[in-house]
Design a protein that fits this description.
31% of the residues lie in helices and 23% in strands. The chain is α+β, with helices and mostly antiparallel strands and 457 residues long.
Length: 457
C-alpha cells in the first residue's frame, strides 16, 4: 500500500532534511532535550542497597533502537552519585565513547525498561523536553546516524572515538507537533517490527544453512561418502566410528607442525627492505568473512600483508595455517611462501595428506576447539594440545574425492546463504529508508498510525 504525502512543503535549508512539511519547525537537536548527563560506572557490586543495574553500550540493541537488559551488569553506585542519573522508562541513551570505522560512535536508543538503572560513563542519559516524544526522537537520531551525521562530531583519541555531544546536538532536525510525533513513532514501531520479524526469519535460515554446511563437512571427513563401508572405533571422541580402511592417528605423523613467530620491532633489520609476506591476526579479520580456502595467492593480495625481512622463517606454499588464539579455529592454505606470527600453528603436509583435506578436518573441529580453549583475557589453544590433535587418514585418492564433494556441497550452501543475506540487506535498507522518510516528512503517516495492514512492503 502506498503512503500519502503532505500537501505543502518548504525548504528546510538543511541538506539531510531537504523539503519538509510546511507546518513543521526546523530547529537544533538540543531543542528536543531537557537534560543530557553522562553516566557513571561506579564500583564493584557489594550486594548492598547501592547495587544497581548499569547499562553499557554492549546492551544497546542497535537495530531495534532499545536497551536489551536481560543480563544486566550490576555496579555499586551511591545514592549521591545516582542523583540525576537514574534511568526512567522513556529516557534516551546516547553512546559517547567507543565505535569503530564501520560502526561510528553516536548511536541513540530508548530505555523502555521498568527497572531503575544507571548508565555507564561511556553513555549519556537524555531526558526529552516537554512536548517531545522520546520514541519519535530515537527514530530521528537513527535516521541521522544512518547517514553518518555523527561522524562530523567525533574526536579520535588513542583508537577510541569520543562524541562531541555539544557539536552533535547542534545539528538540525525537524519538530512536528507532538500528536504527529506520536503518530510517526507508533507507525514506525509497528512497521519496523514487521520488518524485524522478516529479518529474523532470514537470519534463522542463514543459521540453519551454516549448521547444515558444517554437518556436511564433518560427515565427509569422519565417515566418508560411502554409507555402506565397514566401520571401526577410532578411539577418538570427536571422530567416533570411522571407515575401517582409514587410519586414526595424530595429525603430526602426517604433517610437520611449525609454530609461527614474531620478531621484535626493536630490531630494525627485520622491517627494512621487506620481501617476505607476513600473516597476522589482523589479516584474519580482513578475509574471514569471505571464507577463503587459499589466502594471498596473487601478487596483489601479497602486497596487503605485513612484510618482514627475508631472514624470517618462511613456510612453503600449501602449508595449512590454524589460528590458535583470538580468532581460534580460523584455517586456510597458504597461496604463497610466507611467515606467520606465533598466533598460528602451521602444518606442512607430507605426501600422504592433502592440504585441502586437512583444511576440511580443521573446519569440522569447531566443537573440539571450544573444548580446548583456555584463557581469562582471550581464548587460546596451547601448542601441546595442538600437537595431540588426532584425525582419521583416508587414502589420498579418497581424500581428493572428499575434498571435491565438500567443495561442491559448501558452494551450494554458500550460494543459498548469500541469497538469504541479500534479503536481509534489502530489508534493512527498506527499514532505514522508511524511518528516514517518516521523520523528515516525505510520507504522511498520520492516518496510518493505528492501521493493522502492512504498508512497509
Amino acid at each position: 500500500m502506498s503512503t500519502a504525502r503532505y500537501e505543502l512543503y518548504k525548504d528546510s535549508g538543511v541538506e539531510w532534511l531537504g523539503n519538509v512539511p510546511s507546518h513543521w519547525r526546523v530547529d537544533r537537536l538540543k531543542a528536543s532535550i531537557h537534560t543530557c548527563r553522562n553516566g557513571i560506572w561506579g564500583e564493584e557490586a557489594l550486594d548492598d542497597e547501592n547495587d544497581t543495574p548499569c547499562v553499557r553500550v554492549a546492551d544497546f540493541d542497535r537495530r531495534r533502537l532499545r536497551v536489551e537488559l536481560s543480563e544486566p551488569t550490576i555496579r555499586n553506585v551511591t545514592e549521591k552519585e545516582r542523583i540525576g542519573r537514574v534511568l526512567r522508562k522513556g529516557d534516551l541513551l546516547l553512546e559517547k565513547s567507543g565505535g569503530g570505522e564501520n560502526q561510528p560512535v553516536g548511536c541513540v536508543v530508548l530505555y523502555d525498561d521498568e527497572r531503575p538503572a544507571v548508565c555507564s560513563n561511556f553513555v549519556a542519559r537524555i531526558v526529552s523536553a516537554t512536548g517531545q516524544d522520546s520514541s519519535y526522537w530515537r527514530y530521528v537520531h537513527a535516521a541521522a546516524y544512518a547517514i553518518r551525521l555523527t561522524v562530523g562530531s567525533i574526536n579520535q583519541t588513542s583508537g577510541i572515538q569520543n562524541l562531541d555531544q555539544a557539536r552533535y546536538l547542534n545539528e538540525y532536525a525537524v519538530f512536528p507537533p507532538l500528536p504527529e510525533q506520536q503518530a510517526i513513532a507508533a507507525f514506525l514501531d509497528r512497521e519496523t517490527g514487521k520488518i524485524d520479524a522478516l529479518v529474523e526469519e532470514q537470519r534463522r535460515l542463514i543459521d540453519l544453512l551454516k549448521e547444515k554446511r558444517q554437518a556436511v563437512i564433518s560427515q565427509a571427513v569422519t565417515k566418508g561418502q560411502n554409507p555402506n563401508v565397514p566401520m571401526k572405533e577410532s578411539r577418538v571422541e570427536w571422530l567416533g566410528k570411522v571407515p575401517a580402511h582409514w587410519t586414526p592417528m595424530p595429525i603430526r605423523l602426517a604433517a610437520r607442525l611449525e609454530s609461527g613467530h614474531t620478531p621484535s620491532r626493536s630490531r630494525p633489520d627485520w622491517w627494512v627492505d621487506c620481501t617476505v609476506p607476513w600473516f597476522t591476526l589482523a589479516d584474519v579479520w580482513q578475509i574471514r568473512s569471505g571464507g577463503a580456502d587459499v589466502v594471498y595467492d596473487t601478487k596483489e593480495m601479497v602486497s596487503e600483508l605485513g612484510l618482514a625481512n627475508s631472514s624470517a622463517r618462511l613456510l612453503p606454499k600449501g602449508t595449512v595455517m590454524l589460528s590458535r588464539t583470538a580468532s581460534v579455529g580460523f584455517s586456510a592454505i597458504m597461496g604463497v611462501d610466507m611467515a606467520t606470527t606465533q598466533d598460528f600453528a602451521n602444518w606442512v603436509c607430507g605426501k600422504a595428506l592433502l592440504p585441502e583435506f586437512l583444511l576440511c578436518v580443521f573446519r569440522s573441529m569447531s566443537g573440539e576447539f571450544r573444548r580446548l580453549m583456555m584463557g581469562s583475557t582471550h581464548n587460546t589453544i596451547y601448542m601441546p594440545d595442538i600437537q595431540a590433535f588426532r584425525f582419521a587418514l583416508p587414502p589420498v585418492e579418497e581424500q581428493r574425492a572428499i575434498v571435491a564433494y565438500v567443495r561442491q556441497a559448501t558452494d551450494s550452501f554458500d550460494a543459498l546463504t548469500s541469497e538469504a543475506q541479500r534479503g536481509v540487506d534489502l530489508l534493512l535498507e527498506r527499514r532505514a529508508a522508511l524511518i528516514s522518510a517518516a521523520v523528515t516528512g516525505k510520507i504522511d503517516v498520520r492516518s496510518l498510525a493505528t492501521r493493522t495492514d502492512t504498508v512497509a512492503a
